[in-house]
Each structure stands twice: as structure tokens, then as C-alpha cells.
Q: What sequence folds into this?
């Protein structure tokens, strides 16, 4: 899960050329053997007991430690199986945003478990909360469909998918391309255009631009991406239902939807990429949510865009009037929801997702003693 998106794009471009003229490029676990291992079903997973120090200029410490536990999850503690009596457990899956360019204590796993345990303690209920962070870099809907089945022995009481709209839809069809089931129709200068944008705008929108540019010129791929993503979530939901656990899907917006480029940057993007559907992931996310409401109404979908957008501008959320969340105009310092040096969700962004999930758990009464 390198935060340098340009490297990932270059690897993808090389992979396409390699399909025609040379051996295939190395797999992710070969490129990053310190952090990943191959997996028969999921393609790759985290290496257990891995440590990776990543520079993050905006973080108070200037860096974060990406650390996995003995089972390869982004948590400090190892979950035990079978699940201990008196333990409530959630299992989260997602891509590198869920994996997190944050310390474990700030990630969606350990941070959500911490606030839920505090809530239970204040209510006088003895119940240990565990939130296992199975987020893994380079994953997409194909892995989300299978992960809960692969990890069924963890006995989750709640399943969570964090769907990153910035590139998960592209990942859905790209997985079929890698498997040889389709070929995506990219412009001949697709990647040179993206590199030029990255040089001017920075890498924070590169994943989003990659997806937007492709779907602008291959709209049928966008239609297929929604179908594949919907089918993956339905499959995940069926598995979770069999496990006795509800499924919650969090729509995580593209970084550019929360921190849009400046007017100058937008002009450069338009001039370099041409007319493209800006933020196509938001449109596809809304379409997927509507379709899920029809075919899998039991799946709960949360759109985190408003909360992230408002918090990035210092607008706070308060609980007033009978515990109904209200947005008030009081201001706090603006915060980056995504690190500006790359595209990944920041510590502040993780905190917003944690709070949304915390509200959802309580609103639906999910956290009950086993």
C-alpha cells in the first residue's frame, strides 16, 4: 500500500504493455514483500507482524507506523477463535483507505472498538468490543465479496464494507481484465495524461482521475462496474446473513469530492483530460445504493460525504433535541480529511468514519450481548 499513486499507475501501465510483449509484472507481494503475502482466494493479504514506517508530513509525529498483528490485521491485539463469551465483534473490509495510512490506534478498527467499549461501560454493560480491521491495500469489490467467508471463523456480529468511490468501481472491472475476461478501452495516451495532471495538481486525485478518465471513454465499463460492485456486496451480505451478522456499507467519497482542486488546477485538469464526468465515483456510488435498496434492502448504506465535507470546513455536528443529530454553524479549525501529500484518508477522516459507524451501531441496536 504505497502512498505514491504515480508508482501504482506506472505499474498498471507497464502491466498492460507486458500483456502483449513481455512476462507479466511482479505481483503485489513480490513488489512489497514486507507487507503482503499471496492468498489463494483473496489474491493477497497482509503479512503477519509486519512493520512499515511511512512519512506523513501533516501528521503531528511526521510519520505513521503501519503495523499488523499476528493474524495480519491492522489491530494491536490478536482476535481469538472461537470468539470469547462476552465479546461483541465487528469485521471491517476495504482497500488502502481502510487499511489506513494512520497508526493503529487512529484506524477504523481500534478507534471504533475503543469508543464502543466506553459507551457500553457508561451504560453499565460488561461487554468487550472488538473491531477487526481487515482493510488491505490494492483490494476491491472482488475481495469484499469473499473476505467474510474466508474469515467466517472470526464469528463477527457485524460486517462492514468501506467502499472507496475514488477507484473501487474501476477495480471491479480491472479485476476482470487481469483475469483475462475483458479488455478495458483506454485512450492511447491515458497514462501520459494522468502523469501530466499529477505533475501540476499533485497525486491526491490521481486514482479518481484514472477512474473518471477511463469511464468517460468506456461508459459500458462503468455500467459493468456498478453491476459487479452490487453483486459483490450482495454476495458479502448473503455470507454475513448466514453468519447472523448484518452488513453495513460505508460510501467513502473520492478525495476530490471533499478537497476539490483549485480553479487553476481545475483548468489544467480540463485542458489535459478533456471533458470527463468529474467525480464519476459519486454517481456510480449513488446508483449502486439505489440498486441495493431494491435487491438487498437489508444492507445498510451510509454516505459519509456530508460529514467529511463539513468537518473539513470546521462545521461541527451536535446531538440535540431528543438525540437527533443536528448540524450547527459553529466553527472549528479546518481539517484535512485526506492527507494532501497523497490520496489516503487522514487521521481526522478516520475519526469521522468512526463516529458515523458508532452512531449506526447505536441507532440500529447492533451491539448486544451475545
A:
Amino acid at each position: 500500500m504505497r502512498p505514491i499513486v504515480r508508482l501504482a499507475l506506472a505499474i498498471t501501465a507497464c502491466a498492460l504493455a507486458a500483456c502483449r510483449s513481455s512476462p507479466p509484472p511482479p505481483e503485489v507481494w513480490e513488489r512489497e514483500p514486507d507487507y503482503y503475502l499471496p492468498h489463494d482466494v483473496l489474491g493477497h493479504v497482509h503479512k503477519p507482524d509486519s512493520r512499515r514506517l511511512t512519512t506523513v508530513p501533516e501528521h503531528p509525529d511526521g510519520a505513521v507506523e503501519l503495523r499488523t498483528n499476528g493474524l495480519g490485521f491492522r489491530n494491536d491485539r490478536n482476535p481469538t477463535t472461537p470468539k470469547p463469551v462476552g465479546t461483541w465483534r465487528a469485521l471491517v473490509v476495504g482497500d488502502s483507505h481502510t487499511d489506513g495510512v494512520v497508526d493503529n490506534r487512529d484506524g477504523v478498527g481500534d478507534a471504533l472498538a475503543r469508543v464502543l467499549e466506553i459507551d457500553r461501560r457508561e451504560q453499565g454493560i460488561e461487554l468487550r468490543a472488538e473491531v477487526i480491521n481487515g482493510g488491505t491495500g490494492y483490494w476491491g469489490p472482488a475481495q469484499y465479496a469473499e473476505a467474510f467467508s474466508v474469515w467466517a471463523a472470526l464469528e463477527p456480529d457485524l460486517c462492514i464494507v468501506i467502499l472507496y468511490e475514488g477507484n473501487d468501481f474501476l477495480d471491479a472491472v480491472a479485476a476482470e481484465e487481469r483475469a483475462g475476461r475483458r479488455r478495458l478501452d483506454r485512450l492511447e495516451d491515458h497514462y501520459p495524461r494522468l502523469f501530466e495532471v499529477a505533475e501540476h495538481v499533485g497525486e491526491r486525485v490521481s486514482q479518481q482521475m484514472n477512474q473518471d478518465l477511463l469511464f468517460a471513454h468506456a461508459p459500458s465499463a462503468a455500467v459493468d462496474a456498478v453491476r459487479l460492485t452490487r453483486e459483490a456486496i450482495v454476495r458479502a451480505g448473503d455470507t454475513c446473513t448466514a453468519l447472523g451478522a448484518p452488513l453495513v456499507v460505508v460510501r467513502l467519497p473520492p478525495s476530490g469530492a471533499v478537497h476539490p482542486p483549485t480553479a487553476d488546477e481545475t483548468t489544467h485538469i480540463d485542458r489535459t483530460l478533456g471533458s470527463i464526468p468529474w467525480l464519476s465515483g459519486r454517481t456510480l456510488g449513488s446508483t449502486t445504493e439505489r440498486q441495493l435498496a431494491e435487491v438487498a434492502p437489508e444492507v445498510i448504506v451510509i454516505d459519509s460525504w456530508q460529514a467529511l465535507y463539513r468537518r473539513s470546513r470546521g462545521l461541527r455536528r451536535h446531538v440535540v433535541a431528543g438525540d437527533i443529530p443536528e448540524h450547527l454553524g459553529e466553527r472549528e479549525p479546518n481539517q484535512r480529511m485526506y492527507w494532501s501529500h497523497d490520496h489516503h484518508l487522514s487521521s481526522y477522516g478516520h475519526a469521522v468514519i468512526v463516529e458515523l459507524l458508532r452512531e449506526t451501531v447505536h441507532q440500529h441496536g447492533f451491539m448486544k450481548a451475545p
